[in-house]
Amino acid sequence: MVAATARPSVRERAALILGRAAGTAARQLGRGGGTALPGLVAGVLAPRLLERLAQQAGQGVVTVTGTNGKTTTTHLIAAIFRAHGVQPLTNPSGSNLERGLVAAYVEDAEADGRIADAPSRVGVFEVDEAVLARLFSRLSPRVAVFLNLFRDQLDRYGEVDSVGEGWGGMLASAGPDCTLVLNADDPSIAQLAAGTRARVLMFGIDDPEARLAEAEHASDARFCRCGGRFAYEAIYMGHVGIWRCSSCGDRRPRAFVSARRVKLSPDGSRVEVDIDGAVVTLEIPMAGLYSVYNALAATAASYALGVPATTIARALAEAGPAFGRQERFEVEGRTVRVLLAKNPAGLNELLRALIAGSPEREPIHLLAMLNDGVQDGQDVSWIYDADIEVLAGRPMTVTCSGGRADDFALRWHLAGVDPAAVVPDTEAALDDALRRMPPGARLDVVATYTAMIDVREALARRAGVGAYWEKAER
Amino acid sequence: MTPAPPERTIRVVTLYDDVMNVYADRGNLIALEARAAEHGVGVEVQSVSLGDPLPEDADLVLIGGGQDREQRRVADELAVRGPVLRAWAAAGTAMLAVCGGFQLFGRWYRDASGTELPGAGVFDVTTIAPGPGAARCIGDILANVEIEGVGEVVGFENHGGRTYLGPGGRPFARVEYGRGNNGEDGTEGAIFQNAVGTYLHGSLLPKNPALLDWLIAAALRHRYGEGSSQALIEPRPAPYAERAHAASAAVARRRSPKFEPVVK
C-alpha cells in the first residue's frame, strides 16, 4: 500500500508550507513565475521530498528526458492522461531539475502534505538529461522516456558522451517493473536497451519519404558502442534514422510504435501510426518532424500505462502547445508563433518545419533571437552547426535580436541570408519585425531560452494574454 | 551573367571533419569560403577522414576539436601522418588546429584515463588532461596575437587538457581575458611558421577577420610563392564580422576573468 510509506513528516509539511510562501512572495515581488524557488526552499529544508512526491502518485511516475522535446512530450503525456480521466501531477514550464519537481509537489500539496486523490494520479515529470542519473532511483519511474541525445550546451555538460554514459550506469540497476520508452531511430538511445533488465518499448519512424536528402551537420553518435561506425539506410534528422553498425552488425530495432506515413505542413503533421499491429491516424497540431517524434514518444509512454490508442489520438489532436513551444499570439492583426531553439539539432528541425510543405514563393518572416545566459548556453558557437543555409534563396525577412544579435547576424550573412535589421532590444525588434510584414502574414520567432521568455512576455502583453505562471497548466 | 572563375585558388584540406567537429569548427570553413570569394580566391576543399589518403600537397589545413572518444580514434592515424604534416608546415602550409585538433598536433596528449596519445608533432607542445577532479577551462576568451596586423582575437574555450609549450614552442597569443593553454603562464595556442594551434572556437574565423585574411594570404604565398602578384590580397571591410568581433570582445571583457599569472 503506497499511502503507508508516503506519510509526510512534520518537518516535510513545514517545508512544503514555506516553499509555497516563497513562491507567492516571488510572484508578488514580480520576480517571475517562481517555478523553481518553492522547490528550492522546500527541498533544502526536507531533502526527501522528491521521494515523498514519487511515492504518492498511485498510478506511478513517468519521466521524460532527452536533449530536445522534453517539455512538449511531458505536456502531451499529461494531456493524454487528462483525456483518459487520470489527473496528472506534473512540473510545468520546463523547470526540470530536482527543485522544479519538488515545486510541483509544493503547489499540489494539501495542508497535511498529501496530494489530493493521490492514489488515482500519475506523475509526469520532465527531467534534465544531466541530472536524471542522480534522480532515477529516487523517482523509481514505471515508465522512463528517452527522446534523443544531441549536443547541447557543452559549456554546461562538458561532453555529449558523458551524459550517455551516466544513463547507461543508471539503467543497469533498473528492473522489469520499469518500462523504458526508447527512440529506436537514435542509436545512442536505442542501444540503452542492451544493458538493462527493464522492459523496453521502442518508437520510431518507418517512412523512407521522410528522410533527408543529405546529412545534416549536427550529428553526434557516429560511433557504435563497439567502436564501429554507423551507416544509415535513411536519416531523418542529425544522427537519427534507420541505422546499422558496420562493424558489430547491431541495427535499428523494430519499432513497436511506428509512424508509417508522415505528412508535414507548416501548421502541423498527419501520421499513420502502427501500434503493435493496430493502425491509428494521429493529427498533430505542431509543425515539424521533431513534433512527430514527441507525439510517438507520448503515445508509447501512455500506451505502456494502459491508455487506449483511440484516447491517445483524440487527446493529441486537441492538445495545445506547451509553454513557448509553437505557441501562437495574435498581435496587431498578425499571427506570431514562438519557437524555442537552443541547439543545432533543434534549430535545424525548426527551419525544416518552416519550409515543410510551404510553397517556395511564400515569404518567410523571422525574428531570430540569440541570448548567451547560462540557460541559453554561454557559448554561442552552436549556431555554426545549424544548417541555416537551407533557407538561402527563399524570399524572406530576418530581424536579428538578443544579447548576441551581432553574432547571429554574421551567421545568417554567411548562410546567404542578409538580415533586414539587427536590433538587440526585444520590444524594438518585435516592432521592427512586425513592420516588415503585411497584415495577415505570420511571424515566426526562433529564440533561445531566455530570449523566448522575454519575447513571450512582450507578446502576451501585446495580445492581452496572462503571464506564464498564470497560464501554466497543472 | 556568371562571374569569371577565379584565376587563383587555394587547396584546403579538412582533417577528420566528420569526427572532430564538436564545437562548431565547420564555421571556420564556412567563413573561409565566403571570405576567399570576396578576395577573388577560389577554394578547393578536400575532406580527409579516417583511412583516406592525404593529397600531394595543401596550402591550408583545418582540423577541429573532438571528445576524448573521438580523439583516441584519430590519434594513432595522425601520428603516422606526422612526418608529412610537419614537412608541410615547415614548407609554409597554413594550418589552423583548434582545441582537440591543436592537442593532437602537439607532441603527445595524455587523456583523463592516463593513456598517452601520440601527436603529429607540428607544434612543440604537450597536453595533460588533469582528470575528473579538475575544473575544465570554460568561458569567453580574448587574447592578443603577435602577428602584425592581426591583433586581438576572441572566441570561446572549453577544454579539460592543460597544454605546455616545449623549448621550441612559441605561443600563438597572450591571454588578456580567459585561461588559455593552461591557466598558469598566460600563453594561448602555438604558432610554427604559418601553422596556428589554438583553443579558441566560437567559431574562430568568422569573427576574427584579420586572422582569416592572414591565413588566406599565407595559403596564397604557399601556392604561388612569396612576392608573386597572385599571392596578394587587398584590405577589404568585413562589416558583419567586425561587429560580431566587437560584441564578442565586449562579452569576454565583461564576464571572463582578467588573466593574472599564477605565482608558484
Fold and architecture overview:
Chain A is of the alpha/beta class. Chain A contains 17 helices and 17 strands. In chain A, strand 15 (396-401), helix 14 (405-414) and strand 16 (421-422) form a beta-alpha-beta unit. In chain A, helix 3 (37-45) crosses helix 6 (98-108). With 264 residues, chain B is of the alpha/beta class. Chain B has a single domain, classed as Class I glutamine amidotransferase (GATase) domain (Rossmann fold), CATH 3.40.50. Chain B is built from six helices and 14 strands. Chain B has a six-stranded mixed beta sheet. The longest helix of chain B has 17 residues, at 239-255. The model of chain B has no long low-confidence stretch (mean pLDDT 92). At the A-B interface, helix 14 of A face helix 1, helix 2, strand 8 and helix 6 of B.
Spatially, the strands of the biggest sheet of chain A line up as: 2-3-1-4-5-6-9-10-11
| Rg from alpha-carbon coordinates of chain B | 18 Å
Tally of separate helices of chain A: 17
As a percent range, the share of helical residues of chain B equals 25-40%
- End-to-end distance of chain B: 65 Å
Query: Stretches of chain A where pLDDT falls below 50 for ≥5 residues?
Result: 1-5, 467-474
CATH architecture of chain B: 3-Layer(aba) Sandwich
CATH topology name of chain B, in short, is Rossmann fold
Question: Outline of chain B, from the CA principal axes?
Answer: globular
Shape, principal axes of CA atoms of chain A = globular
Largest sheet entry of chain B? 6 strands, mixed
Global mean pLDDT of chain B: 92
Largest interface: A-B, 32 and 38 residues
Assign a percent range to the helix content of chain A: 25-40%
The topology string of helices and strands of chain B comes to: EHEEHHEHEEEEEEEEEEHH
Question: How much of the polypeptide of chain B forms β-strand, as a percent range?
Answer: 25-35%
Helix tally of chain B? 6
The total of beta strands of chain B comes to: 14
